[in-house]
What does this fold into?
Amino acid sequence: MHSKISRIVVSLFPQFNDTKNRPLTMKILVCISHVPDTTSKINFNADNTQFDTNGVQFVINPNDEFGLTRALWLKEKQGAAVHVVSVGGPETEPTLRKALAIGADEAIRVDQPATDGYSVAQALAPVVNEGQYDLVIAGRESIDYNGGMVPGMLAKLCGYAFVNTCIGLEIEGQSATAVREIDGGKQTLKMPLPLVIGGQKGLVEESDLRIPNMRGIMQARTKPLHVKSGAGASPKSEVQSFQKPAPKEAVTLVENAEQLISLLHNEAKVI
Amino acid sequence: MPILVYAESDQGAFKKGAQELISFARGIAEKMNTEVIAAVTEDPAQANLGQYGAHRVLYCNHPALKEFNAELTANALAQAARETGATLVLVSSSADSRYLAPLLAIELDAPYLPNITGLPTSIEPLTFPHNVFTNKATAFTALQGSIGVLGLSKNAFGVQQHPDDASVSNTDLDLPGSSWEIKSTEKANNKVMIADAEVVVSAGRGLKGPENWGMIEELAEVMGAATACSKPVSDLGWRPHSEHVGQTGKPVAAALYIAVGISGAIQHLAGINSSKVKVVINTDPEAPFFKAADYGIVGDAFEVVPDLIQKLKDLKAQNA
It folds into this structure.
């Protein structure tokens, strides 16, 4: 019913169809990373060349969760199709299904190992371009490799506007008001669509995060999950090895403020 | 094949992050037998960036760059990189640097490696150590291609003095218009920000309620420190989100991190791990944070902190 009305409105009032021929219903793509849970112990294999996934629980990257809930709010408030995408092998599908259970409409998996940020952005770009998304929400940074580069690289590759460290977002027509966290404060920007944001907490609050309910989990089983082949772009960086931090020396306990100040001044030399 | 450095300034002042970044570039340049060019968007005349290790300074004097715009600054740095034949472009860990770096990397079709913690461990291929798994490990990553963008972790290298003068040249830039518009900026001007702070005073649920934060703010003020908090405190609304430090909050790479009434969950530790000296004040001797700390007091924060404030004030008065 909604799309029939859209078509009538668009044919009567062509100015409601912008130069890129976007339909009235907003299309939002949420980029999801499949990462080790925040409490995971980090270990590497014998050679120290690979992360040891034994016993590790994988989850949706925390920054991405705020973006997913925000996208669902936009869907409920203004009408939108919400798709989720992830770059990785079949082992990442349970994480995509979880996003579907939370409320996304469709999922896409780009079948390519997520090697470095550059190749992940290259793998996502065709998905964005083919889908003609109005808004792309990616987490600002993933807790595994802390690259913080996929949202910005993706925006540049697709010719989209970009806001990083985004802690607030409103969409009005063909533009967005985005709040960006800066060192020591925040900044409000007016940005055109189509837009990519590097999102984090603030898009919604922790207590607002949507979690899958029984109905969502049931529906997730039959929602579409498309697998696309990777663009074949090679990574531009390669991890040679990993190293865990040296074991820590035991803490020096003191009895009072005076002793602490003395050590900080004379020994640690930090005050 | 010089090393270009985006040396950030704020109203003409080049802060410690920029000084450190230039010093780091000089360290790499000496290994690669090349020179350091500092690219600036504000007048560098008073700064003498040579003293931190720059050989030359390129002043990108364009009106559109006076107020930070990531799109235009990335564009300008890419032009400067091509003009100088740079092999590396260095940025800091500031919010502005992290905003523009991915745009710059794609503009140059280059890899971007942030959170670097030291000089290269190899030149062919160019390989750097950097923080991964939110400070729980170090990775050594090799870059491919003829140009790379590097991000330095705050306080990873330190500022080094050089007895040099750096010549300044202006560069003419052609910049397109930008549709990215700043509507307003809010900054707490009189407070030390976590991103810049050498000392951070942080507190958690052990403080029992937001009404008890006065002593934390006072301690921070006496020490010229930034205030921070743990995730539960931020989620409870006791303190603003901007103070939340930890794995899913802000990272802290201060010289001194003082944690009051924080137990030390793994996620919190991961986020503050790059701090050089960690002090813990907690009533619970079993608190996990004591295993990660350098110094600690097992005691009641409501006694220890006021005592610390008074002793620090006395010391200041003596030294005045």
Notes: Chain B has two domains: 3-170, 199-319. Chain B touches chain A through 87 residues (CB under 8 Å).
